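Changelog note: in this version the structure field was regenerated for every chain. One regenerated record is shown below for reference.
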Amino acid sequence: MLYRRLGNTGLKVSEISLGSWLTYGGGVQDDTAVKTIEQAYDLGINFFDTANAYNRGAAEKVVGKALGQYERSSYVLATKVFFPMGDGPNDRGLSRKHILEQADASLHRLGLDYVDILYCHRYDPQVPVYETLRALNDLMRQGKVLYAGFSEWSAAQIEEAMHVADQYLLDRFVVHQPQYNLLHRNIEAEIIPVSQKYGVGQVVYSPLAQGMLTGKYKALGDIPAGSRAASEKMNQFIQRFFNEETFARVNKIRAIAEQLGIPMAQLALAWVLRQPNVASALVGASRPQQIVENAKASGYVIPADALAAIDEALA
């Protein structure tokens, strides 16, 4: 496993990281989730991701239990705040009240004194950015959070946050978690350039497009038993990829992977990691063998002619 600096920080994270969205605390049995996290750790993966909103805190409990057996300094853990955690008017968003309360609640569920990264899970137009940044800075001063990040913010929102941080001498955001894969390249036009400008690194989620780029789906009517698309709990996000145009593109990528002699999933992950602004590709795994296969993408360099063929296939 290779490691990269997270943006302009001194923090080093594994090129492949393990997340818990739609899986741990709900879609996958707890004992299987723990075994998968243990397998990832044994492979050299040091970066784990969760969120308070994943199954309303259940994912944090599973991740905390699994990582609790290891030396705290040996791994990097991220969680998030924004989405509703209750029915009250202050049980959501990026207000000072919600951030501080949910940070303590997450630490309690995780069984930890601090998290390495706390993401603002989305932008909150109802809360001044200064209020959000000040709350995050206070958490960092208390030692409960080491770095702050955000997820799915626009380039203009990133610029706003950096301007406010500099104006009031607050710590800047250092990491962004966007969706990025062969079928979804939106961040290349504006997000990556503005992130590079401010030293923000990308930790990209859904690098395998919810499983579309794993090679298991070959046609619209071909849904393997036990796959994410076959699960009522987890299929709602992958269904948007189920159309003839996407399958045509995926099959072209599959052919390129076969020519290279590597699994399509490893090619898709290596393609994401070709981007120097990407610090880590965040994958989900419902069983240990999946993370074993995904970890093999670390360090793989795609030949230039294959990269050209991929661009042509996606065009």
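Spot check on this record: The longest strand covers residues 76-81. The mean pLDDT is 93.
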